[in-house]
Request: fold
Amino acid sequence: QVQLVESGGGLVQPGGSLRLSCAASGSIRSIYDMGWYRQVPGKQRELVARIPREGATNYADSVKGRFTISRDNAKNTVYLQMNSLKPEDTAVYYCKMEVITITEYVSYNYWGQGTQVTVSS
Reply:
């Protein structure tokens, strides 16, 4: 009913930059929160950044000042600009959106398939 497709991951050297994108498609009425999470093997998935439809964004302390989340409501897309990347940023990155579909009147969370980001020299 709703699909999220991510792009932009890859291999980058420490200090480099990447921009992730996540586009939603399907029977979408409205999207509330959009966010990016990341997960490394053996650890829980953690919030990286979140942007509500209205209001302030919030970031994990570990990425503040380096990552910027933004959204384009007309395109149902969320972005994550990642600068000054560090090896500890290596993870699978997932987008999540809180979506109200055309046929529903409550919101559900949808996840992207994940995109690998590797920071290594």
